[in-house]
Write a structure and sequence with these properties.
Elements lengths: L2 H23 L2 E2 H11 L8 H13 L3 E7 L5 E7 L1 H33 L1
Helix pairs in contact: 1-3, 1-4
């Protein structure tokens, strides 16, 4: 499997968690979210608009995000997203699940590494 395809699988699995993490700190608009993900990750987590916006729309439709549309020019409207109270609870549950799975994966990998060293 190519490197890009592998990264794509991992990104899809954690994109919602990362987006909610950013929005738990402050409200942001889509492009700002994409830039923050890239900057904070040191360029390791780049989420294309074609992936980001469907996630934002789904989170909004599910009640996890509130959206505020603000006009920023003659014709341009910017949509600011903010995590809702329901979204905070969802984020906490996702984070707990992620941490548990991450711990399990680390245990498996460390055991696998120990077996390879023998």
């Amino acid at each position: 499997m190519q490197q890009e395809a592998l990264q794509s699988h991992f990104k899809r699995g954690v994109a919602t968690l990362c987006i909610l993490s950013l929005l738990s700190e402050r409200e942001m608009y889509g492009y700002e979210i994409a830039q923050a993900l890239e900057t904070i990750s040191g360029g390791r987590f780049i989420l294309p608009e074609g992936t980001l916006y469907p996630i934002l729309y789904r989170l909004e439709d599910d009640g996890y995000l509130d959206a505020k549309r603000i006009r920023v020019g003659k014709r341009m409207t910017r949509v600011y997203y903010r995590i809702s109270e329901h979204g905070q609870a969802y984020y906490a549950a996702l984070l707990e699940d992620y941490n548990s799975i991450h711990t399990g994966v680390q245990l498996i990998l460390s055991r696998s590494n120990e077996e390879n060293e023998k």
